[in-house]
Amino acid sequence: MFELLINPAKAEKQPWDMFFIGAFYATVSLFLTKWIFSGDPVLSKYTGILVVTFCVMFSIPFMYFAIKNEEEKDLKEKNFIPLMKEHGKALIYFMFLFFGFIVAFSFWYIVFSDGNQNFRAQIETYCMINRPAHFDDCVSEYGVKHVSKTTGFLTAKDKIVNIFANNIYVLIFTLVFSLIFGAGAIFILAWNASVIAAAIGIFSKSDLANLPLGLVRYMIHGIPEIVSYFAGALAGGIISIAIIKHDVTSEKFWVILQDSLNLIIFAVVILFIAALIEVFITPALF
Q1: Rounded to two decimals, what is the model's pTM?
Q2: What residue numbers bound the domain in which 197 lies?
Q3: Domains in the chain: how many in total?
């Protein structure tokens, strides 16, 4: 039923609708998890993963048809610039979907008094990244009272290398997931949205008044990062569908493969720019 809310053709004309779809999926996922699993002595420990799982289940039908739609564009348009513009439409509505996830998750993280329990896995991931030497203390505090800067002992060059390498690692996983199952990359992307939301909740110190500042803080470098991840997801998904629909020795397949490689190159370049922003611009503003 949820897959009937919107389709790729409508999303291209009204991409902002995907923000509300993303927020709706994230909200329903969170409430279903709380309603069904919060009382379970075992599964209640894994609600952070279950929230992402529900979000993925809701999103997969749209992701599949969106990627299928982009693969069909490859067969109609062979010129690089017009084709990238067409793919750009998909990246825009994917971004709105992702931003809807983040805003909804961040909002409910702050609103629920037990929000940290609902995002336990995300908090642990946040602490592992930001306070690995004091992981236990960070988890016990849920990272709310103290936020330490990441890799503060490194030079700017080392920070860029570390951040860029980590982002490339995520991009590779996104690409692999989408290759194995065209819409499979949505799991990596939804998980990242939930981790970012937990970080925003921590930065906001569980105060809704600070939520806009937290969103700005993480979206400055987060937007180009997520654009690159969706570009990688799109590239892998297009190849996955092309393998199913076309003979790998056919001319159509190699046209599609070339377009996918262009998307991957674009994703890597954007990731490097995002690393520069995260190292030099974000700390200067916050």
Answers
A1: 0.81
A2: 15-285
A3: 1
